[in-house]
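Q: Structure tokens for this one, please.
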Amino acid sequence: MSRGSDGVLAARDVLDERPPALRGPSPGGHNARVTSTPTDRSTRKGAWAGLLLVCSAGVVWGTIGPAVDVVHRSTSLSVLTIGAYRSIAALAALALAATVARRWPACRALLREHGRRVALVGVLTAAFQLLFFVAVVANGVSITTVVALGFAPVLLLLVTSARERRPPSLAQGLTVGTAVLGLLLVSTGGPAAVHAPHPTLGVLAALGSGAAYALSADVGGSLTQQHDALAVTTCTVAVVAAVLVPGGIGLALLRGEPTGASGVGAWMVIVYLGVVTMAFAYVLLYAGLRSTPSGTAVVATLLEPVTAILIAVLFLGETLTLTGTLGCLLIVGAIGSLGRRMGQPQAQ
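A: Here is the predicted structure, written as tokens:
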């Protein structure tokens, strides 16, 4: 809900969905013969694997909304408090995984070499979640989803174009435009939007959430080029927990709000939110970012609202409208176009 000496290296290739070995003009000019070598096939396979990992993260994130709704309805916990407990569960699971996989030396090396970037990714990730919750309360789910998730790929496309001093290609513009249009249709095709009590605040918070999400993927992608996904996730989630726990539990204590749940089922859902939708999903995301540009990844994770809608239709009795169906198809089509361009052979 993101190169130079500052480590922001992945944004240079935003929405150039081909892996590095497949980019750039062919040495033979316009008449160069396009061939597929074993190295090309291996690189394309890795690129496809990375895209599938990112898409899987988007699918997992699609279960967050229904799960949070279950906890919110069965307890008196605020969404900020739920987010704090979620980060604690995620950090505990990652610490256990790092111990079993013996990744603590890798975590220490990551912090020693890129401590500031790790802190930046963690703060951006926490800001993305906090601002998204603020926007939902102020403006409703539909508008927040469109503004936050739609702004992220557009921002990365503009940043890359400015950095490279060239306009985006037609294919890049069509992919992002199709995905954002699909997101708009998906959001407006659901239940009627609730009254927005603070529309201006909600839009600003949603824009901030989208920017934080885009930049966190961007900077996090640069970290994965030198360090494994488990180490990156463990270190960044530790920062997220350091931000969300005081903001969620601490604020609830100061305001006299409930900080606990009486039912075992609610705690099990909170553990699921932390272990699966945060720890596991971010490992998938960072593993995919090793071979997937951050702009491509942000578009691919738009499978999140598609998954949420399918869950609502299949398990919650909601009806998918024609507009919502068209939006889902546009998003899937945009992601499919990313994969086709990633699979193009190299010109020799």
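A few notes: The longest helix spans residues 104-139. The CA atoms of residues 178 and 334 lie 6 Å apart.
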